[in-house]
Design goal:
Shape: globular
Helix content: 25-40%
């Protein structure tokens, strides 16, 4: 018998909720499991600004006693302010390939949202304010995700569409070979470019004492550089600070640079080494084996992810992005990186799309955030 239960956001209550994708994907060699401890901290509200800006509920669907689907649903006050109406979201949606299972979870989620006055639902989105994870994979199922991107089987978007969700916007992932970027031609001109347009470039200092200032500077750049439209993700400094803390093992200052005009932050590029090889095939738990695998696999990774390349409008035609990218690729090559995934690029941000194409990026994956109108 199929039934849905509300899960309490406690360590014990969330155990089957967190375990479900480990069961669904246990034979899938491309699935990169999350760190259970970090996810649990986020879902219990620790270090998670997202949960302070609304209400949320966790739903898990059972077939008799077996967990078969799950979803987190909530009201996001930030999004509601952007759209000018009560807006909800779904997150962490997972299900076996069975529409009845999926529909049971989504029915419970939308019922809860309707009761709280929600008129529009978007998702799936990350269960935190996050630049690294949006939507479900709809194109490019041929390999594991790169550094905390979403991963799922093709039936997942099909289940959402069968339920009535429609595309809201896509986030794009581009494959960039480091050898395709003519660093050797750009860098000799970099000093002349910086002098002509009045900016300087420096590697990011990710030390704990400097992290707050870095997050503040990056947040201000993203705010200026992102098109002003409903739904555009504008992380606060605290959001970036928590992200950096969460992915600290994969931060490298060789691939992270900021551009300044005087003391004003005007541009940035940030790349992280890929975490997926270090977690595939693990239990997601903190064990000596998993720790050793992370260290060894991270040292040998040939891939990095660049989720952030922003330049404020005033400097977008002054080669700032070219210099930043060339310096980041130089740093990536020094780490043995051979390819970079540029993601997630909002398809509506034409400047970011064009910059990625200019860098030689080839579109190879697509992630979709859906929307559903609630009557």
């Amino acid at each position: 018998m199929i039934h849905v239960e509300i899960v309490k956001p406690t360590r014990q209550g969330l155990r089957p909720f967190i375990q479900l994708p480990f069961d669904i994907y246990k034979k899938d060699r491309n699935w990169a499991p999350p760190a259970r401890h970090d996810l649990l901290r986020s879902l219990t509200g620790k270090d998670n600004e997202f949960f302070t800006h609304g209400i949320q509920r966790f739903f898990i669907t059972f077939d008799d006693e077996k967990p078969v689907a799950r979803v987190l649903a909530g009201v996001d006050l930030r999004l509601s302010a952007q759209f000018g109406e009560a807006t909800g979201y779904i997150s962490l949606f997972e299900s076996y390939d069975n529409y009845e299972y999926a529909a049971a979870s989504l029915d419970a989620a939308t019922r809860f949202l309707k009761e709280n006055g929600v008129k529009r639902v978007i998702g799936p989105i990350a269960p935190r304010y996050d630049l690294l994870n949006r939507g479900v994979l709809v194109e490019g199922f041929d390999g594991p995700p790169v550094l905390q991107n979403a991963y799922n089987q093709p039936f997942m978007p099909q289940l959402l569409e069968q339920y009535g969700f429609q595309k809201w916007r896509d986030y794009l992932a581009y494959d960039i070979l480091t050898d395709s970027i003519p660093v050797h031609r750009i860098l000799p001109m970099a000093e002349r470019i910086r002098g002509r347009f009045g900016f300087r470039v420096t590697h990011v200092d990710f030390t704990r004492s400097n992290l707050i200032r870095v997050a503040q500077d990056m947040s201000s750049i993203i705010l200026e550089a992102t098109p002003d439209e409903p739904g555009a993700y504008l992380p606060a400094a605290e959001d970036l600070l928590q992200m950096f803390k969460r992915i600290r093992p994969w931060l490298r200052n060789q691939t992270a640079l900021m551009a300044y005009a005087g003391r004003r932050p005007i541009g940035m590029v940030v790349g992280f080494v890929d975490s997926s090889p270090s977690v595939i095939g693990t239990s997601g738990r903190r064990t000596p084996y998993n720790w050793a695998k992370r260290v060894i696999k991270t040292m040998g990774t040939k891939t990095s992810r660049c989720p952030m390349l922003y330049v404020v409008p005033e400097f977008q035609n002054k080669a700032v992005n070219t210099v930043l990218l060339a310096e980041a690729v130089k740093g990536a090559k020094s780490l043995g990186i051979e390819r970079i995934e540029g993601s997630l690029v909002d398809e509506t941000n034409i400047v970011s799309v064009n910059n990625t194409l200019y860098a030689g990026g080839k579109l190879y994956r697509r992630y979709r955030v859906y929307q559903l109108a609630l009557g």
